[in-house]
Write a structure and sequence with these properties.
- It is built from 11 helices and 19 strands.
- The longest helix is centred in the first third of the chain and has 17 residues.
- The relative contact order is 0.07.
- Among the domains are: 73 residues, membrane protein fhac (Ubiquitin-like (UB roll)), CATH 3.10.20.310; 79 residues, Ubiquitin-like (UB roll); 76 residues, Roll (Ubiquitin-like (UB roll)), CATH 3.10.20.310; 85 residues, Ubiquitin-like (UB roll) (Roll), CATH 3.10.20.310.
- Strand 18 and strand 19 form a beta hairpin.
- The chain is of the alpha/beta class.
- The termini are far apart.
- A 4-stranded mixed sheet has the order 4-3-6-5.
Length: 456
C-alpha cells in the first residue's frame, strides 16, 4: 500500500500548520583582529624595526590573512629577500593576533660610498631612508637594487638643481673587499702609477704592490683613493704597531709612459705602539676571564692588529661553542699617545642561543652507527657547539675507528623558529665494521672512554 502523499491523509484536507518564525541570520564571523605583536626571524643585515616598517603593519590595527599577504608581498617587492613567509595565530588572551615573519636576506651586501655628488652625505642618506626603510650602511649588491637607489638618488639631486647623471656600481677596495659606489657618471682619469714618499718602516715596492692590486686601472677621486689606502696600506702599518700612520698629502700628475695618473702619496709612519689593557664590555654568556684567555692578547706586546684580529676570531669561536652561532665581536681602541699604548674594549653581541637537535648518520651499517652514537657527546637539548661536528669527524679519522674510511662531512640544518641545530654525519664509501682490534687486551693504543667521544 502506498503511503499518503505529503499534505494528504484519508481523503481529508490536512490541518493547516501554524506559521513558522523565520530563523535569525547567523552572526558574522570575525576574520580581522587587532595585531598584538609582530616578530621577525632570519634577519641579520636589517633590524626588526626596518623589516616591520616595510610590512606596513601597525600594532593594534585590525588585520586578517589578506593584510598579512599584502605585508609579505611588500617585503618581496623590495628585492632584498630571497624568501618571505609568515604565520599568525590567536594571542594567549584570545583578543588579537600574534604574527611572525620569516625572511631570508639577499646576499652579498656591501658598504655604500657616495662621491662628488655635490650634496652632504647625511642629506643623501636621509633622502634614501625616507624612500626605503631598508636603506642602511650596507645594501644588497643586486643590479635591481643598485639601479633603484641610483634612480632615487638622481631624483633627489634634481630637486637640488643638480642634473649630472649618477652611476652606481660595485667596486673592489681590497683583497676580497668590495663596496657599492654612487658617483657622477662622467669619465674620470684612472690610476696608472702610485709613488710613495716618507716611508721607512715598509719598502716602497711592498706599498706599491699592496695598493696596486686595488687601485691601478680604477677611476681616480681623492676620497676614493684615500679609502683604498685605508683598506690596503694602513693594515700593513698596523701589523707593525704603527696605529697613527697618516697620509697627509696626495697629489697627481699625468703619467708619462702610460695613459692615466701618477698618484703621489706622502706617508707619515708614526711610532710603534704596544697593547694596553684589554677588557670585555658588558655582560656576556661566557665568563670574561675565559674570553680573555681565548683571545691570548697580552698587554705589553706589540700592537699588531693582524694578531688582534686573530684574537677576536678566537673570542668569537669561544662564544659560538656555547651555542651562540650568530655572535658578533667588535673592539674599540683606547689610544694613549703619551704611553704609546693601545687599549682594547671588546664588545660581544651573542645573539640567540641554539641547542643540539637530532643526530642522523648516513653511510654506516648498524654496528658502525651504534659506535658513532656511543662516542658522540653533544646531547640533544644542550648548547650547540658549531665546531664540534667537524672536530668529531676529524677525531674519528685520527683514532682509526674504522678500516678503509672514505670521505666524511657534516651537515647542519638550523631551525630558526625553535633555535635548534640538527646534525647529519655523512660517511662516504660505506666503511665496514668498526675496527674491533682497538679493543683487544694488550692493545697499546688508547681506548676511547665509553660515552666520552672525541675531545673538543
Amino acid at each position: 500500500m502506498l503511503a499518503a502523499a505529503p499534505g494528504f491523509g484519508q481523503g481529508r484536507p490536512a490541518s493547516p500548520r501554524p506559521p513558522q518564525a523565520k530563523a535569525a541570520p547567523p552572526a558574522p564571523v570575525a576574520t580581522r583582529w587587532p595585531v598584538q605583536s609582530v616578530s621577525i626571524e632570519g634577519n641579520r643585515l636589517y633590524t626588526a624595526g626596518q623589516v616591520m616598517a616595510v610590512t606596513g603593519l601597525q600594532i593594534g590595527q585590525l588585520a586578517g590573512k589578506q593584510d598579512f599577504d599584502a605585508a609579505r608581498d611588500r617585503l618581496v617587492a623590495t628585492g632584498a629577500f630571497e624568501t618571505v613567509g609568515y604565520r599568525f595565530a590567536p594571542a594567549a588572551d584570545g583578543k588579537g593576533y600574534v604574527a611572525v615573519f620569516q625572511v631570508t636576506e639577499v646576499e652579498p651586501a656591501y658598504p655604500v660610498r657616495f662621491e662628488e655628488l655635490g650634496v652632504p652625505e647625511k642629506d643623501i642618506v636621509a633622502a634614501l631612508r625616507a624612500r626605503d626603510p631598508l636603506f642602511g650602511a650596507k645594501i644588497p649588491a643586486t643590479k635591481a637594487i643598485v639601479d633603484r637607489y641610483t634612480r632615487w638618488l638622481q631624483e633627489f639631486l634634481a630637486s637640488r638643481n643638480i642634473t649630472e647623471k649618477v652611476a652606481g656600481r660595485v667596486e673592489a677596495i681590497g683583497p676580497d673587499r668590495f663596496e657599492i659606489q654612487f658617483r657622477p657618471a662622467r669619465h674620470l682619469p684612472v690610476v696608472a702609477q702610485v709613488t710613495f714618499d716618507g716611508n721607512q718602516a715598509i719598502p716602497s715596492n711592498v706599498l706599491r704592490e699592496a695598493i696596486g692590486g686595488v687601485a691601478i686601472g680604477q677611476p681616480y677621486t681623492e676620497e676614493k683613493f684615500r679609502g683604498l689606502l685605508d683598506t690596503a696600506v694602513r693594515p700593513l702599518y698596523e701589523a707593525r704597531g704603527r696605529v697613527r700612520v697618516a697620509f697627509p698629502k696626495i697629489g697627481t700628475e699625468p703619467a708619462k709612459d702610460v695613459q692615466g695618473l701618477n698618484v703621489f702619496v706622502t706617508v707619515t709612519e708614526g711610532e710603534s705602539f704596544e697593547l694596553g689593557n684589554i677588557e670585555i664590555a658588558g655582560a656576556t654568556p661566557v665568563k670574561p676571564a675565559d674570553l680573555l684567555k681565548a683571545a691570548n692578547l697580552k698587554p705589553g706586546d706589540l700592537a699588531n692588529f693582524d694578531t688582534v684580529n686573530q684574537g677576536l676570531d678566537r673570542v668569537r669561536a669561544a662564544v659560538r661553542r656555547a651555542g651562540y652561532m650568530q655572535v658578533k665581536v667588535t673592539s674599540d681602541r683606547k689610544i694613549d699617545d703619551a704611553k704609546k699604548t693601545v687599549g682594547l674594549v671588546l664588545h660581544i653581541e651573542p645573539g640567540p642561543q641554539y641547542t643540539m637537535g637530532k643526530l642522523a648518520i648516513n653511510g654506516l651499517d648498524l654496528n658502525g652507527e651504534f659506535e658513532i652514537k656511543r662516542l658522540w657527546t653533544l646531547k640533544e637539548g644542550k648548547p650547540f657547539n658549531a665546531d664540534y661536528p667537524d672536530h668529531f669527524l676529524a677525531s674519528v679519522r685520527e683514532q682509526g675507528l674504522f678500516e678503509n674510511l672514505g670521505k666524511t662531512r657534516s651537515e647542519v640544518k638550523v631551525d630558526e623558529q625553535n633555535r635548534t641545530a640538527d646534525v647529519t654525519l655523512h660517511f662516504g664509501g660505506a666503511p665496514p665494521e668498526p675496527d674491533r682490534r682497538r679493543r683487544r687486551p694488550g692493545d697499546d693504543q688508547q681506548q676511547p672512554t665509553p660515552g666520552s667521544g672525541p675531545p673538543i
